[in-house]
Amino acid sequence: MSRTAVVIGGGIGGLAAAVALHRIGWRATVLERAARFEEVGVGLSLSPNALRALDALGLGDRARAVGVPTWATHAMRTPSGGHLMRAPDQGVPPLLAFRRAALHQLLLKAVPDGRVRTGAQVTALRANGPTATVICDDEEFTADLVVAADGIHSTTRGLLWPDAPPPRFLNYTAWLGLAELDHPVGPDGPPELRGSMTLGRGQALLIHPVGARQTYWALLAAADRPGVRHPDELAEARRRVGAWHQPVPALLDATPADQVRRIDIHEAPPLSTFVHRNVALLGDAAHAMSPDRGQGAGQSIEDAVVLAAALATEPTVTDALTRYDRERRPRTQTTAESARRAGQQVLNAGTAAHHLTTLSLRLTPSALWNRLAPRALAPLWDWQPPSLPDQPTHPASP
């Protein structure tokens, strides 16, 4: 008889968990509180470790067909247009950039039909026996395992980890936009639209090509407090960086006002465990982090693969969750700390520190940087996923 799971949350991490669980022979039901799926976050990039995790799910080739190469981590400029670092011609792999909705759809289509429920708001959860029960409105779902992938403001974490501190503001905010262009971008487009990062004092602008003629941009800026909003967020972004080098003004001009989102950047303080009985936190519910290492979605997909591999090979759910916590918590918490430090260095440094950073980048030859960067990123990018059998070798019992 198949083991059963309830996955709370239908974002990238939740859907990846459902795909992974079905791949090892479990029956997973996804409960998503939104009435319908809408685009959240606009764009993202995946590094090699995340792509390997998708390979383990059998989705790597499809993801590579959808994603667009981006050199944003290797092409850095000043607001006036000066080059701090140039992307290499060869030897260093680019990241792969996606419109978030495209990656989400890829995962959604990989979940068996009828296994995703929208408009399902979880109100309570019982996890004090061999099974767990999720209460959703007037309906109950009982399963051998509950995977809570319900985001940074996780209902599950609040119910079962009541003493956990709330998400904390990291003193910066972001404008996220999608520019619709009338010419190709990415490998077939102009060099300035193949992905880049522009560093200003207290501000940075990221550019990723995410479609044949679509470019995702993110303006990150230091902020004293969350919740500040403007009547026209596109106009505010233009006020801040509209005089920066091209293609920044052109991208802002090509962005419809309704394609701009404003978010404040928070992280989830570290937990002492990601597991409560037969409930496992996954993705942002466990380790929401700043975007400064580009690892939020990737770490969620890694979580899904590791969890499924443990369930497929350990004798009990308890043993599997113990292994999942042991393998995932140190890696994700180290990654979150690294991302936080990177964001502080770029956005919350003083004038002198900003000038020192840009000077060191300018004085380091791009060829040298492109040799050093893979070594520095190796702990993140060189991660290898466990293999997932098509069916569990030792189906975990309660």
| Helix/strand structural class | alpha/beta
**CATH arch. level architecture:** 3-Layer(bba) Sandwich
Total tally of structural domains: 1
Helix content: 25-40%
Overall form: globular
Kindly report the name of the CATH homologous superfamily. FAD/NAD(P)-binding domain
Regions with little confidence, pLDDT below 50 for 5+ residues: none
- Output the number of helix runs: 12
At the fold tier of CATH, the topology name is: FAD/NAD(P)-binding domain
Strand ordering within the main sheet: 6-5-14-15-16-13-17
| Radius of gyration (Å) | 21 Å
Strand percentage, roughly? 15-25%
The profile of the biggest β sheet is: 7 strands, mixed
